[in-house]
Amino acid sequence: MRIKKNITISLTLGILLSAAALYLSFINVPFADLATYLTTINYFWILPAVFIALMSFVVRTLRWRFILGAVHTISFWQAFYPLMIGFMLNCILPGRIGELARPAILQKKDNIPFSTGLATVAAERLFDIILLIILAITVFAFVHIDPALDISFGKYHLNKETLIAVGEGMFKLSAALIAGVIIISFSATRKVVTRLIMALPAIFFFAGSDFKNRMQKRICTPLTGFLENFALGFVLIKNPKKVGICIVLSTIIWSLAALSYYVMALGCPGLRLSYFEITAVMIIICLFVALPSVPGYWGLWEAGGIFALSLFGVSPKDAAGFTLVNHVIQMVPVIIIGLVSAMIMGVNVWQISSYNEYKKHN
């Protein structure tokens, strides 16, 4: 009951924050004009846009299953349901809880160590970040960003400097992740880390032997076990051919995501952008939503979309209308499929939001 109450409070706060975020992003957009614009959209294009967006999740499932296949073979649906549950939780709750939900479900349903499942999710994210950085570099090389363009959103100023700062931050993060993966993936470097962990009790030279033994038993040994299982999730990284396949799959995922944006834009008046320009809009939105924000990125997504579309001469009214509708069609189907997936798997979304609680009840 306590977990359910906490999640209810978190969800309620998320909804309130999302409402406030939407207000901030649309504060300078005439609502009467926006409402009129929404009635002029050809909503027929929602169906193919949603279909293409969902196809990107099918490819995501294939990629994750491929990464998992290095340590444990599971069916497409065994991977698809946890993936959609994870993305659904990311849409409605703060803290990217969905990234922990996936390995938690794998552990209970397929007996895959939590740390190994978590490593495969981290590997996925690493491929996404690397590809996003490559696409961002391409965008910055060919798209002129007016240094004077600035959109305020709460404490953030969405401008060229913010984009560059986020891009640099993602580059540093990916570099740190790659270094960490190399250290734990190869047995020689992992053994060094293991020895350092097991030697930690020696730092407390002033403590008694009982304290050191308890520390080694309760902290050091479990930590090295976690490290070994975590390393299994990155076995694929050692195989250049498999890494290449993951890069190809990642390219297809992001290409489909951009195509979904492009198809939806076909039904929106005032947006006559090329596929490359829509891809640039998507990348800029992705960079902005990397900033800390409310669940589902509500508000920050819209502000980022208005900023990105203004680079291509789209009016604030048209940009706000497209971005809002596109955000809804990108999020709502994921939430619905995630909830259905949870029902099919018999997963309690309230419990899965807390890993310890989920283990207790399963």
Question: What is the topology?
Answer:
Elements (H helix, E strand, L loop, with lengths): L1 H25 L4 H10 L5 H23 L7 H17 L5 H13 L3 H29 L8 E3 L2 E3 L1 H26 L1 H12 L10 H24 L7 H27 L8 H15 L10 H11 L5 H30 L3 H4 L2 H7 L1
Antiparallel strand pairs: 1-2
Helix pairs in contact: 2-13, 3-4, 3-6, 3-10, 3-13, 4-5, 4-13, 5-6, 6-7, 6-9, 6-10, 6-11, 7-8, 8-9, 10-11, 11-12, 12-13
Summarize the structure.
With 362 residues, the chain is an all-alpha fold. It is 75% helix and 2% strand.
Strand order in space, largest sheet: 1-2
Whole-number mean pLDDT: 81
**Rg (C-alpha, Å):** 22 Å
Order of helices and strands: HHHHHHEEHHHHHHHHH
Chain oligomer state = single chain
- The residue ranges in which pLDDT falls below 50 over 5 or more consecutive positions are none
Share of residues in helices: over 70%
Structural class: mainly alpha
What does this structure look like?
There is one protein chain. This protein is mainly α and 362 residues long. It has a domain at 2-72 and 112-161 and 238-319. It is 75% helix and 2% strand. It contains 15 helices and 2 strands. It has a two-stranded antiparallel sheet with strand order 1-2. A hairpin with a 2-residue loop joins strand 1 (151-153) and strand 2 (156-158). The protein is globular.
